[in-house]
Design brief:
Blueprint lengths: L11 H22 L8 H19 L12 H15 L18 H26 L19 E3 L5 E3 L3 H17 L2 H4 L5 H21 L7 H21 L9 H18 L7
Antiparallel strand pairs: 1-2
């Protein structure tokens, strides 16, 4: 199974699946950096800010791994240069697109530049760490301001966190992974333990992003219960095929239980759900 410990990511398979999230991030960076997709407006800034915030949230909360940033070093430098070319521009936006975003105003961008600069400093630090042959241990990242950072007040007078398209793309991939991996069509021929591990990672990613951005996962509590029971049954069945018994007192099992409990707590706050 390639598992060498009781932590969620003490497994080759969990890291392999996390790379599907990484692939989404890499493609989104490439898309936003294409010359025909770079715009001096709040919508472009929102999308790039959200990409950076997601990467840093994974870093702060130890979701997956940051090793992929080693190969992203050139892209991160180009993203930084392109981003600040737009951010530092002497322009303001009063209507259209995301005109409600606080960074629509030039003076606001000047005042808050140091926050985003610190984000890119951290991305540079991670990229250097993983691309260097010999470097000091990577220090823990303590953001100088909350992640995510930018907010606006909607027409109802409620504060909302600004999020971009990458959130929906990641959330959709995680949901589809859980539903497919636990489906009868997938499990009936044979149970593959790595597919169970992928479900754990998907739940961890959904929890981390929904908690950070104040979003509800759009999932029914009974759906989460069904997923957990299906996952547990598959786990037990896989072990029984190897003449093993699932120990519910082991650290890994308790970690997985806690993941699903977190998701249920998030679902309780959701007045609208999709599955």
């Amino acid at each position: 199974m390639g598992r060498d410990g009781e932590k969620l990511y003490d497994s080759d398979e969990t890291f392999d699946f996390f790379y599907e999230v990484v692939d989404l991030i890499e493609r989104e960076i490439s898309f936003r950096l294409a010359p025909e997709r770079v715009f001096h407006n709040t919508t472009w800034l929102r999308e790039v800010i959200n990409i950076v915030e997601v990467m840093l949230l994974f870093d702060v909360h130890n979701v997956g791994t940051t090793v992929y940033m080693g190969r992203l070093a050139p892209s991160i430098k180009r993203l930084r240069d392109t981003f600040f070319n737009v951010w530092d521009g002497d322009w303001s936006q009063d209507e259209g697109g995301d005109a409600h975003a606080p960074f629509r105003d030039y003076q606001y961008r000047v005042k808050h530049r140091h926050v985003i600069s610190s984000w890119f400093d951290r991305l540079d630090e991670i990229a250097t760490y993983w691309s260097a042959d010999d470097s000091d241990d990577l220090a823990l990242f303590v953001p100088i301001a909350d992640l995510p950072y930018f907010r606006y007040t909607n027409h109802l007078g409620k504060e909302r966190i600004i999020a971009g398209a990458i959130m929906g793309a990641i959330h959709g991939l995680m949901l589809k992974t859980i539903v497919f991996n636990l489906s009868d069509e997938n499990l009936e021929p044979t149970i593959r333990f790595w597919e169970i591990e992928h479900v754990w990672v998907a739940v961890d990613v959904i929890n981390t992003l929904c908690e950070a951005f104040g979003d509800a996962p759009s999932i029914r509590e009974e759906t989460i219960d069904r997923w957990f029971n299906r996952m547990k049954f598959s786990w037990m069945t896989f072990f029984s095929q190897e003449s093993r018994v699932l120990d519910e007192d082991r650290e890994l099992y308790q970690t997985v239980v806690a993941l699903f409990d977190r998701l249920k707590r998030l679902a309780k706050s959701d007045s609208f759900y999709s599955i």
